[in-house]
Amino acid sequence: MKFLPITGSLLLLFLFPVIALHAQNSSEEIRTIEIIGSDQMQFDVTEINASPGEEIKIVLTTESNLPKVAMAHNVVVLKQDVDAKAFASAAATARNNDFIPPKLTDQIIAYTGLAGGGETVEVTFTVPEETGSYTYICSFPGHFAAGMKGTIVVE
Ligand SMILES: [Cu+2]
Fold it and tell me: Domain total for the chain?
């Protein structure tokens, strides 16, 4: 009788990691894609495969020692058939709005804030039900032209 409480405590001790793990799993259903933006104005992830209607989280970290005003990145996911080059040109004039052109927000599926060196930004969104390729770009001036883009392939 005397060792019963001890058995109970031991049981709890063994069960706790299982319970903790379970709690972690249920709160982590959203698939996370981590991307690094570099001084070379490139994303280290340029293709993301997703299922129609899947909820994903994009986490972008900028690796740079430059001041934010000179080097920062974001991820802007564009709708299909959007002219990414024209969008990037318009974005370059929208410094006051973190390079998100207010007049073209209807061309955007999702976007992060601007991440300067050492900063991380993220966005969680639902990818379209429509299969196909969706372009994402960095809208900091000059970066799209330098090749800072990628594709979300929904299939
Ligand atoms: Cu950039």
Answer: 1
Residue 69 sits in which domain range?
A: 31-154
pLDDT at 4 over 60: no
Order of all β-strands in the sheet with 108-111: 47-50, 149-154, 132-137, 76-78, 108-111
pLDDT on residue 5: 53
User: What residues pair up with 116 in beta bridges, in sequence order?
Assistant: 72
Ligand 1: distance of its center to the CA of 30 in Å?
Answer: 25
Cα 5 to ligand 1 centre (Å): 59
Ligand 1 centroid to Cα of residue 146, in Å, is 9
Residue 1's pLDDT band (cuts 50, 70, 90):
very low
Question: 31 alpha carbon to ligand 1 midpoint, in Å?
Answer: 23
Number of CB atoms found within 10 A of residue 75's CB? 27
Residues 95-143 have pLDDT tens digits of 999 999 999 999 999 999 999 999 999 999 999 999 999 999 999 999 9
CATH number, domain at 150? Answer: 2.60.40.420
